[in-house]
Amino acid sequence: MRRALDRFRRRVAGRLELLLHRLGLELRELPCEADGLFGFTIAHLLAMELARGERPTVVQVGANDGLTDDPLHELIVGRSLRGLLIEPQPAAFGRLRENYAGHDNLVLLNVAIGPRDGVARMYGMAAHKVAELPVGERVRADQIASLDPEHLMKMLAPLSSRPQECIESFEVPMLTFASALERAGLDRVDVLLIDVEGADAMVLGAVLDAGHRPRILGFEHSHLPRRQRRAAWGRLRALGYSLTTAGADTLAVLAADDA
Q1: Residue 125 contacts residue 168 (beta carbons within 8 Å)
Q2: Which among 42, 122, 118 is positioned nearest to 75, based on CA atoms?
Q3: Alpha-carbon gap, residue 87 to 103, rounded angstroms
Q4: Which ranges of 100-176 would DSSP assign to H, the alpha helix?
Q5: pTM over 0.90
Q6: What are phi and psi of 123, to 5 degrees?
């Protein structure tokens, strides 16, 4: 098993280093765990933008608490980056607000992103069911919410033998991506991270349809049907993005001349 993980790490690292090489960058160090390569590389790319004197605007759709497994938190805080962080889950949004308290350069929205402005019904694991899980599984369960109850049950299956009995629904305001940007007073997106449990293709499409071309773009492809996944990759390549995948995630980078 360890040899297989090492091979996986080397393969992913090779793809990421190749992507950076095409962009004229060098990745000087790599994290020890393969799971950290995606976030580490995004943070590295953002650091390179800052080193060039750029002041990128960061948007995260599905920001959770802004700290757990978040590759950009330290740079956002340390460099006072301007940005928009979106998280629909009320409890996670409360922690997000606490973790970024005092950072007036950021706009935090407790909304879901969808096809129209209105109200969305979302589904998550009930708080009392999360509390019954072993400590190591609570963080993962607390990160899972979806507009699709069937998708949520698939995600909760490894955590419960009766996932349908663990689900609770809640309503949150829903905005289109364009409306969210307008509310935040932003007119550009330079760095975009999407993690919305199976709705990544919808959010990505909304961003591109609105004419935005983030220089650095990451999304979770593993929950997308194959057709949606390939369509998203094809559209990004047609727009001039260089793509690579690391585990469950896709990293897309636009050359400076195309941004």
Answers
A1: yes
A2: 42
A3: 17
A4: 127-131, 135-142, 149-156
A5: no
A6: -130, 135
pLDDT tens, the chain, 259 aa long: 344 445 545 555 566 566 656 555 555 444 434 345 567 677 767 777 776 778 899 999 999 999 888 888 888 988 889 999 999 998 899 999 999 999 999 999 999 999 999 999 988 887 877 777 787 777 677 777 888 878 777 877 777 878 787 888 899 999 999 999 999 999 999 999 999 988 999 999 999 999 999 999 999 998 899 999 999 999 999 999 999 887 788 989 887 655 5
Element (H, E) at 172: strand 167-175
Identity (one letter) of the amino acid at 253?
V
Looking at domain 56-254, does it have CATH number 3.40.50.150?
A: yes
Q: Please give the structure tokens belonging to residue 197.
A: 């449990």
List Cα–Cα distances, 116 to 16, 194, 217, 223, in angstroms. 36, 18, 23, 23
Distance CA 160, CA 136 (A): 14
Region for residue 184 given its phi and psi (left: phi exceeds 0; alpha: psi -120 to 50; beta: otherwise) = alpha
Give me 66's structure tokens.
Answer: 């802004």
SS3 content of the chain, % helix, strand, coil (to 5): 40, 20, 35
First and final CA of the chain: distance in angstroms?
41
Residue labelled with tokens 């609570």: 138
